[in-house]
Amino acid sequence: MASLRPIFLLAHPRACSSAFERVMMTQKDRILCIHEPFSGAFFMGPERLSDRFDGREYERVSSGMDSVTYRDTIEGIIRICDSNPDKRIFIKDMAYFMVHQPGSRSGLAESFAGVASGTDEVQLSNVSVIPLEILRKFHFTFLIRHPVLAIPSYYRCTIPPKSEVTGVTQYSNADTGYKELRKLFDYLHICGIVGPSIAGRTRFSPATMSDGQLQDVEICMIDAEDLLRYPESIVQQYCASTGLHYSGKDMMKWNTVEEHMYARDAFATWKGFHDDAINSVKLGGNVKNQHPSAAEQDQIWREEFGVVAAQLIRKLVDENMSDYEYLKQFAVKPQLSPN
Fold first, then answer.
1. What range defines the domain where residue 168 resides?
2. Which of 77, 202, 234, 320 has the fewest CB atoms within 10 Å, i.e. the most exposed one?
């Protein structure tokens, strides 16, 4: 029996995660999507981990999210799950929304005071602000993208004309999200919430608990380039790993007015960041078989962004490569039919 727990897709920014969410949106008769629910607590709430809106009280209050805590967010997710028993819940969010930045305070969000959080030894190693016992309620999956693609994609959102819509004008390693995704993945792995089996590679006979949940949740790590280059293979394996029904090529396309309105409403909170996903009509497209050399890529960035920005992008790409490559080793491999 497949896991019935809510699926939680953890990603880093600009990993094509909203495009993948649109795949799930095509199945709205059986899947209910929750889009980036922790962003409010992370950026705007009283327990916020980001300093982006510090000193910008008007924006925080006018967002309507200035009082949202991490516990509020979890309780909201639970209410949605309870009120939709006939649907599988699919949550997509950034791992770094739940992980303390390097050098900052650690520990659970204050709103979880008094919530059971597992053994002291395991909880002390918890890199997130969410108690372990709550993390165990979700079926976690992961999405990554090569830094040479994700990092300049985010940088474009911080300069005109995009920045005039996003309102974001600065970019640093705190916004890349790779280290936090790796830390949270490792913690979930160590605690046995995911693994040791790897989707598409390790065959196993899952033992089930009394409530029908899988004890062994496969590590299901998707690389965005594989997803875009081989959408059918990757989506089919993702569905098999998570217990979702795979309905074929229809999951990879969306072009009705209703579908676009659904996505536009779901992605409305952070304007400008989801335009590509909102305006898309299918999953996939032209994906290069190989990246340019470092020297060629640097020249491309200099021409597009200028010398100083190109140097920053190269620095951030290099700083995040080891974390990307570590996570990549767990990625689902495309399964291609022989010609």
1. 7-328
2. 202
